[in-house]
Design brief:
Layout (H helix, E strand, L loop, with lengths): L15 E5 L2 H21 L4 E5 L6 H14 L6 E5 L1 E4 L9 H8 L11 E2 L10 H14 L5 E4 L21 E4 L2 H11 L8 E4 L2 H5 L4 E5 L5 H9 L17 E6 H4 L3 H4 L11 H15 L8 H5 L4 H7 L2 H13 L27 E6 L4 H15 L3 E6 L9 H17 L5 H15 L9 H22 L6 E3 L17 H14 L3 E5 L8 H17 L9 E5 L13 E5 L1 H12 L18 H18 L7 E8 L2
Parallel strand pairs: 1-10, 2-3, 2-6, 3-5, 6-9, 9-10, 11-12, 11-14, 12-13, 14-15
Antiparallel strand pairs: 4-8, 7-8, 15-17, 16-17
Helix pairs in contact: 1-2, 10-13, 14-20, 15-16, 15-17, 17-20, 18-19
Bound molecules: fructose -6-phosphate.
Amino acid sequence: MARLNLLEETRYEKLAVTVYPDQQTASKKVAARIADVIRGKQASGEKAVLGLATGVTPIRVYNELVRLHKEEGLSFKNVITFNLDEYYPMKPDAAQSYVTFMYENLFSHIDIEKANVHIPDGTLAADDVAEWCLNYEKQIEALGGLDLQILGIGRTGHIGFNEPGSAPNSGTRLVTLDDLTRADAARDFGGKANVPTKAITMGVGTIFKAREIILMAWSKKKAPIIKKAIEGEISGEVPATYLQLSDNVEFVLDEDAASDLTRFDTPWLVKDCIWDTQLKKKAVIWLACELKKPILKLTEEDYNTHGMAQLAVEQGPVYNINIDIFNQIQHTITGWPGGKPGADDSQRPERMEPAKKRSIVFSPHPDDDVISMGGTFIRLVDQGHDVHVAYQTSGNTAVWDDDVLRYMEFAIDFEGSIGKDNSQLKSIYDDMRQFIEAKQPNQIDTKEIRDVKGFIRKTEAISGARYAGLQDDHIHFMALPFYETGKTQKNSVGEEDIRLTIELLQKVKPQQIFAAGDFADPHGTHVVCFNIIVAALERLKATEDWVNDCWLWMYRGAWHEFETHEIEMAVPLSPQEVVRKRNAIFKHQSQKDRPVFPGDDAREFWVRAEDRNRETAKRYDDLGLAEYEAMEAFVRYKF
Ligand code: F6R
């Protein structure tokens, strides 16, 4: 029987949830609780038996445990650990094994006895797996069970590798991984094809027996599955929902992972609210979508029956609220993303002055500019603004190896055709070919190969920007150093990244900046690139006046879109402009058909962009605003 929930605000939540502002704070709290268990057991001369997880979620918890060990003397001598799972088959010394992960992130940095570490064995012969699994269970039982189990959650709702369909009483066993889980792991393995199809995992029943269970989740990416796990019906389709049956479980979330829960997403359904402009806008749009009605047709009864009676009473009549919100949305629409010269701009998203603006479009990868805001980019140029584009990173990890050979062959033939000695190029080509033929998944390319990949993306970006109407001297390649690791894991941001950005900003002194506020991109490059721009602007603000007149607009890329209530500027695209945008995206040939990093969306980037821009226009249309072919959306960031 789950513990009683006495709060109205959390009435949709079927288990205990604690939300922290960010992952760092939450991880420290979880680490402190683990440390408490260890110390408590130490005090009574007992062993602490911990169930551990891998993945990106617990990394900061492990960092903090290492810190507690090194700086505060926390000893792990009395700790016995059992890991949740391991890929099968898997060699323990492989880069992707959970053995490697656990030693790199925790065990190598603390004083745990090696004999006390247990991780499922990925090297077993198939016939031995069942007995081995039974023994794993027995070992845990013999120690009196797990004192504390920590968990992450997969986007399928798996805990451990208990994928949809797992039974609540399942024990440690060999399982088949869900396709989405394999797609999520593709990055570590250098492609989904290299991800094992099976794993050995503790069962739901094994996890359930732990005296305390903490499930952690961070980031927006986890928000939808977290909502299902906490508010959904118990079902084998989302194995994490089984945890609702336990009294000993707590979900520890950051604000992003919690953001789809009813109390945060639609708080008016569970409590009285302070109705500021933003919440009002969100609620009215939500109501219109729920009822599939345009805003101006929403009635008092609609408000009253959907948790919005308080708003109707406080600020009604509802027709006035409807008109107010309708007008606010109407005012986000503009065909003049650089401001409309000579027009009253009191209700427009951008200022009319100066009539010709200096704008910089920052593009984290060499194609985000056209994918995300190609229509607006072209419009800005057409409307006579002084537009620059700055490609922040080389994007060289996202080019296929065979493209490198193709371009090298081209260069060799060209040198030959103009009578030059191309033997040096040929020998570089031979080395490249040899390297590529023997290349292991995720192996870092040679400098020459990385350079050629970068050049390929550079020429494509030039071609796209020229198509949008830019002069060559307005196209900038920053090749920020944080990105240049040759692998998906990037370096931390350094002074040089910020210095290069400051240098460009000082040269252009823009009145308008567009930057990717697309923080869900799978490798995190967008958020890093965005933070670099903000850091540069913050520094410049102290000494340069122009910064105070510079507006920063965020766009979103191939991965997701702003919610309607967030949008502050919506730039409509005509059918012809949609085609022009598509042509600009087509210039990025290396990313066409099947890019190296497609994320988990099978559509090509241009299709995603068009679908998304059409959806945005449809959302406006459904709310009762004018019907456009497509729309690009922006939100202003105030630094
Ligand atoms: C890891 C495990 C998985 C992960 C889950 C989330 O041992 O069993 O259930 O916890 O896939 O992975 P991350 O944390 O990488 O998002």
